[in-house]
Structure prediction request, 254 residues.
Amino acid sequence: MLRIEDHDRQRCRPEFEATLLDDLEDLGFVPDEPPIAWFRDRKPLPWRQSDNDRTYATAIARLRDQGLVYACDCSRATLAGRPASGGDGGTAGGREWRGPGCPGGCVSRGLPLDVAGVAWRVDLGGGSEAWRDLALGDQAGDVAPAGDLPVRDRHGNWTYAMCVVVDDLRHEIDLVIRGDDLREATPAQIRLGALLGRAAPPRFLHHPLILRPDGRKLSKADGATSIRELLAGGMPPDALRGRASAALGLATER
Ligand SMILES: [Zn+2]
Prediction:
């Protein structure tokens, strides 16, 4: 199943989607549903997040009715302005802050939700969630390591972390394979799924990322070679898929 995760209306563009579809086709990926041509037609589809605003609004309205959604007007300054305590925390100027909630204690402030410029968070209830990762084995983590999950940002965009949970539920996705950079989000997503009525979480497999030697992400600016360039240079699609899989430990190189 192919889903276009273009929840961020400020950043996503139809031409980016077209490029992504080109890359998938050039790599030889053929979705079971829907046909790639349906995306190219630009008609509204259940598999394109920007076409499904009401779906996310309805899901979050259910949580609002249960009193689980709160407005948060915290900024970086809220965190940086906290008094220093000599902790080893991961903030710039302020003292270490760990969830649940948010740095400014907005969960108990009762700020209005339907105003511009505030983010929405879901009160996940604290604690932790555990799962058996298909690559990493038994895993567990706090549901709010950096605060309760934002479900809508201050610009009014639904967040990636929330949209995929709603989509995985309605699309009946039971296997999530994704990069290790999303592993820390997993406990919150398991909890949110349960709050939305999901009986059991999907199975997860978190794979390593292909990084620069110094551990940073690959980027075009640093001269990293793109899939498109490798294919244009004559590398067969199956060889490229195989090399990428082997580099991630998902397949063995023969
Ligand atoms: Zn806040």
Residues 85-92 have pLDDT under 50 and may be disordered. The chain has three domains: 1-49, 52-81+91-206, 208-254.
